[in-house]
Amino acid sequence: MMNFDTNQIRATDVPDAWFQSLWLVLEKGFRYIVEQGSFVGQTRCELDWIEILIYRPYQVDTTGSYNPMIPFMPESMKHIPAPLTLQGLYDYIPYLMSRNIQSNEEYTYGERIWPYVEHIVGLLKKTPRTNQAILQVARPSDLLLDDPPCLRHIDMRVKDGFLIFYPYVRSWDLWAGLPANLAAIAILQEYMATAIGVEVGPMLATSKGLHLYGYAETLAEMRTGMASRKS
After folding, report:
1. What gap in Å lies between CA 86 and CA 111, rounded to an integer?
2. Residue 67, by phi and psi: left (phi above 0), alpha (psi -120 to 50) or beta?
3. How far, in Å, CA of 116 to CA of 191, rounded?
4. What helix, strand, coil percent values describe the chain, rounded to 5?
5. How far is CA 127 from CA 134, 157, 164, 176, in A?
6. How far apart are alpha carbons 130 and 169 in whole angstroms?
7. How many structural domains is the chain composed of?
8. What is the pLDDT of residue 101?
9. What is the DSSP-derived secondary structure letter of residue 53?
10. Over pLDDT 70: what percentage of the chain?
């Protein structure tokens, strides 16, 4: 019989979702060699399926001391490369929230979804119960790309005065990709909720390919403390 696992995480915020995901992939992931796409020939440790419910995806720092949407790195672990910096997040946001695309890029998420954001804002203002509010990233022609988009869509709905986001990611780099992806998506969620006139609700992110590459597996073991448990 085929071995297939479904997994669920309930997280307070984006950094909590990242940390819990590290544990889960290290404990339950299966390993295989990448044959196509990014990092061909390297090993991936991957989950069959995961649902990540984040209760407060958008956070604002009221102390001025740190950004609560970026993974926390303890002082004792400063030797581990941070998966995301504040500047890295600022650099990534236009990739999701603008139409800008460079001459060397085949696509950006923002180039595909940003032109439709205001339309969906209007749709949810007029008919908040609609099931038609979805930002589609994927196109049929993506099958012909060497590196098709990982984020496929962001579904959404308004319920009880809250905007809920449902992003789906087909293949998800847990160490380097998830922190920036979820933080930027949460910023988009806050932007749209404000424009609609509702509150930011939870986010339920799903993926059938949440993974750690070989190099990141070692970093994840160090960050979670699993490395010392193994020794």
Report:
1. 23
2. beta
3. 14
4. 40, 25, 40
5. 14, 10, 15, 37
6. 23
7. 1
8. 92
9. E
10. 96
The interaxial angle of helices 14-28 and 178-196, nearest 10 deg, is 140
Residue 86 within a domain: yes
**pLDDT higher than 80, residue 143:** yes
Which of 62, 65, 70, 75 minimizes the C-alpha distance to 89? Answer: 70
Tens of pLDDT along 151-195? 999 999 999 999 999 999 999 999 999 999 999 999 999 999 999
Helix (H) or strand (E) holding 165: strand 162-169
Q: Which pLDDT tens digit goes with each residue over 7-27? A: 999 999 999 999 999 999 999
Q: Kindly report whether the global pTM for this prediction surpasses the value 0.90.
A: yes
Answer whether residue 126 is part of any domain.
yes
The answer to whether 83 and 89 are in contact (CB under 8 A) is no
- Are the beta carbons of 168 and 137 closer than 8 angstroms? no
Q: Pinpoint the alpha helices (H) of 29-116.
A: 86-97, 109-113
Residue 14 included in any domain? yes
Q: Tell whether 1 is covered by a domain.
A: no
Average pLDDT estimate for 32-53: 88
CB proximity list for 127: less than 8 A, separation 6 or greater: none
What the block records as the tokens of 135 is: 């930002």
Burial class, 222, CB count within 10 angstroms (exposed 0-12 / middle 13-18 / buried 19+): middle
d(CA 112, CA 101) in angstroms, rounded, equals 10
Q: Which helix (H) or strand (E) holds 19?
A: helix 14-28
